[in-house]
Amino acid sequence: MKLNLALAQINTVLGNVEKNLEKHLALIDQAQAACTDLLVFPELSLTGYVLQDLVPTVAHRAEDCDPVFHQLLKASQKIDVMVGFVEEDARSRFYIASAYLSGGKVLHVHRKVYLPTYGLFDEGRFFAWGDGVSAFDTRFGRVGMLICEDFWHASLPYLLWLDGADIFLFASSSPGRGLPHANPCDEPGRLDSARWVDEINRAYAGLFTSFVCHTNRVGFEDGLNFWGGASVYDPDGIALVHGPQHEEALIQVELDLNQLHRTRARLPVLRDERTALVLRELNRIVNAKDNS
Amino acid sequence: MADISIDTDLARKILTGFIRTELNRAGFSKAVLGLSGGIDSALACYLAAEALGKEGILAVRMPYKTSAQDSLDDAQQVIDALGIQSLTVPITEMVDPLFERFLGMENRRKGNIMARERMIILFDQSEAFHGLVVGTSNKTEILLGYSTWYGDSACAINPIGDLYKAQVRELAQAMGVPKSIIEKAPSADLWAGQTDEGELGFTYDQADQILYLLIDQRYTPQEVVDASFREEFVKAILQRVRRNQFKRILPPIAKLSNRTIGYDFLYLRDWGT
After folding, report:
1. Which residues pair with A170 in a beta bridge?
2. Which domains, ranges and CATH numbers included, belong to chain B?
3. How far, rounded to the nearest angstrom, does the alpha carbon of residue A17 sit from its chain's CA centroid?
4. Which of A11, A157, A284, B129 is positioned for an S-S bond with A219, CB 3.0–4.6 A?
5. pTM score, two decimals?
6. Do B267 and A53 touch (CB under 8 A)?
7. What is the pLDDT of residues A229-282, one digit of tens each?
8. Domain locations along chain A
């Protein structure tokens, strides 16, 4: 089975959902014309990233009665779409969220669990954290979504893997940082943050013998730059595509989902994973911590 | 010595993108820069010209009667090399009456007045040219507070404020800034014979190293000393950084209401764009 995937690495208008929605709809049309099955947008693609006090003014709900999602759901009858937005729950808590839309329905919403609140980040000040993670079924198989800092913690991709995800969809609004030295050992032209994310995504693909698809926005917000650099790694950890650094792009790539079968026949790490042992040891570790 | 070299191609790409984007978002496509003849303003000018095109730049030379002819000549080299528009606005006739009003004024006061006069001229040209003022302060001098508050530190955006002096030199070289500008001793040129390093009492290379370890690498002062820097020197640098924090932030507003600018009224400048 083949999956024609498109990764949008886009710039956004800060706090203007209407303008960003226009761009989403235009890209959905463009991707559909190129026979795309699934189009993935970055973190907070409908709003921009450093929202601060704009958060309550840009929040939406992934429901057909929401004017923004009404249009996105309609568009999702053409191709599957994953979008990034600010979600407001029934009790007015605000989350950084990604929604997976397919055939006019919301298949899943993931609320960002890990909100970086250190260094240049201040997400915990403005957002509530998601309290769960789960994989879900799509017409291409079982999928798991995570948002940026979520996959800086190995536990969430691991849980999604055990929950059946064979395709990981990662979305970021990652501010670029760490200018490399002249003549780096690594390939030049990438910031430290870009290199690190790319390395761990490759590692997840190989460790979990799964597809890892990541997209990240581009552009600037005040002094922050966003580096793009979308990528897809196959279950062997081989790069299928790399988007450009710091430039808008719609990146198309075909995923041969039969590669899951071939890789796992060779390398049965999923079969051999001892989840009962993990659970037992985690309980022991957590209980020992509680006791100390 | 810590390696503080940079990938100049990547820095150039990000900084030109920053200038173009941030000016456009503010509704502008042109920039105004004060060109002193020194390396910082030369580099900022090269970056701005690459970002906006030569038609989008107005370089302003603002000499005082004691300014070195070399400075004017070096600034002219940048103007000629980039083919950008320029203006020369001498400040002598503007600042001398104020100097004369307070006889015996010391050099520091005069220097501050000159820096602020230049700021007035640049912001006036910003209005006339419909371009924003691009800043030319580097990370070393911002951290050390070696600038005049609301003088040379005043600008709309600053592309080079996260580059240490040695990194400015490296990027300037990569972008083809004339050699004479890169190699001469850094000077605010506020009075004859003044050099930054003479006034500061240490070299930029030393300061860059200590600041890089303290700020970027988060070394403790003792760890910097252990990395073979003199304790007194490390303390003096740290003291300068701390004492000049006021120059790096907006003046605090006394909080009274439930929502106060700077504390709980938080928006980026790019809000809505």
Report:
1. A146, A214
2. 8-196 (3.40.50.620)
3. 19
4. A11
5. 0.94
6. yes
7. 999 999 999 999 999 999 999 999 999 999 999 999 999 999 999 999 999 999
8. 2-291
- Name chain B contacts of A16, Cβ cutoff 8 Å: 272
Q: Reduced to 3 states, what is the DSSP secondary structure of residue A109? A: strand
Contact status of B218 with chain A (Cβ, < 8 Å): no
Confidence of residue A1 (pLDDT cuts 50, 70, 90): very high
Under an 8 A CB cutoff, do A246 and B14 touch? yes
A66 CB neighbour count, 10 Å cutoff: 16
Which amino acid is residue B240, in one-letter code? Answer: R
Q: Tokens 């005049």, residue?
A: B148
- Torsion sign over Cα A31, A235, A195, A127: positive
Chain A CB contacts of B18 under 8 Å are 220, 223, 225
State phi, psi for B3 to the nearest 5 degrees: -80, 110
Specify the CATH class of A2-291 in words: alpha beta
Q: Does B273 touch chain A (CB under 8 A)?
A: yes
Predicted pLDDT at B193: 81
Long-range contacts of B240-247 (CB under 8 A, 24+ apart): B240/B143, B240/B144, B240/B145, B241/B143, B241/B144, B241/B145, B241/B211, B241/B214, B241/B215, B243/B145, B244/B143, B244/B144, B244/B145, B246/B149, B247/B142, B247/B145, B247/B147, B247/B149, B247/B153
